Amino acid sequence: MATGFLNIDLGALVSNWQALNAKCDGKAGAVVKANGYGLGAGRVSGALAAAGATKFFVAAAEEGAKVRQAVGQDAEIYVFSGHGPTDTGIIAEQNLIPLINSLDQMTRHFETLAGHPFGIQLDTGMNRLGMEMSEWQAVAPIALEQGPKLVMSHLACADEPDHPMNAYQLDVFKKMTDGITVPRSLAATGGILLGKEYHFDVTRPGIGIYGAAPFGDATPVVKLDLPIIQTRDLAEGEVVGYGNSWQASRPSIIATVAGGYADGILRAISNRGALWSGSTRCPIVGRVSMDLITVDVTDLEHVPDALTLIGPHQSADDLADVAGTIGYEILTSLAARYKRKYVQP
Ligand SMILES: *Cc1c(COP(=O)(O)O)cnc(C)c1O
């Protein structure tokens, strides 16, 4: 069967990283978790390493191997989830740097991999990962004696510049880390855009590199075309798809397109979203099914081989708005079965 065609512009990706890196005076690492936000952790990390990135961040130790292979032995690869019970082997083999989240993890790290590099993750109010103030105060002397590579925390509301949580977390982070000599990191993409006081020594952009909000000046990285498998003519009054949720109010041409919710095209955009042919909007009619979408192409002068779901007239963020989600979810849901083409920088 035909599958979608995903074009990934590594040149745009690199220019987004460079633009973010320039905003924070060359302090940017790169977050490549979740298979490089769906775009391919190996390809993405390799391109960014070639452009000068030296610090990479993944969510789980298992994700580190692919990145290590792409970036070589010298780059630093940090693991947000830290050092879990099953992570010791892979941390050692791939030379990963766990970001220690608790006293438990710290004990495990020192007992199993004494002398192996580590970082510290602090919780400054998000209540997700990291040590809180009291725990940190208790272990800081021991931890600092072992020379952590990085001390970091994460902002909960950085995509809302006016949110009072930003200044609050900045203040807590300073209270927890002022006076220590270890490099510090607080900002992801949103935090970079908040300004210099949030940058500290290292920043951790993710989504902005991949061309999505909140980095408004990003260059789009992804284009997704879905092939048309079949078209048919409908008379006024005929219905389309599961549940007969759409009925033709005029004689219509309906294209059946390869791609469905199994490809990360969220079912929530049934009868609401659209695909594009050049600059013509072609509405999705009927329900998105597992592998197929039905699209009203009546207004096209001629029916093309494929329609565009993500492209110049509809960004991943636009699509996210229609589905009631965020660009992050659209990108990380992109199907493994799409044919992928990488455009080199
Ligand atoms: C995902 C993540 C990032 C990157 O965030 P973006 O909003 O994609 O830039 C940075 N730090 C941590 C801890 C994360 O979980």
From TrEMBL:
GO terms for biological process: D-alanine biosynthetic process. SUPFAM superfamilies: Alanine racemase C-terminal domain-like, PLP-binding barrel. Substrate binds at R128, M290. The modification N6-(pyridoxal phosphate)lysine is found at K33. It comes from the Bacteria. Pathway: Amino-acid biosynthesis; D-alanine biosynthesis; D-alanine from L-alanine: step 1/1. The active site is at K33, Y242. InterPro entries: Ala_racemase, Ala_racemase/Decarboxylase_C, Ala_racemase_C, Ala_racemase_N, Ala_racemase_pyridoxalP-BS, PLP-binding_barrel. Coiled coil: none annotated. Keywords: Isomerase, Pyridoxal phosphate. It catalyses: L-alanine = D-alanine. GO terms for cellular component: cytosol. Its EC number is 5.1.1.1. Residues 221-343 form the Alanine racemase C-terminal domain. Its cofactor is pyridoxal 5'-phosphate. GO terms for molecular function: alanine racemase activity; pyridoxal phosphate binding. The keyword Protein biosynthesis does not apply. Belongs to the alanine racemase family. Catalyzes the interconversion of L-alanine and D-alanine. May also act on other amino acids. This is Alanine racemase.
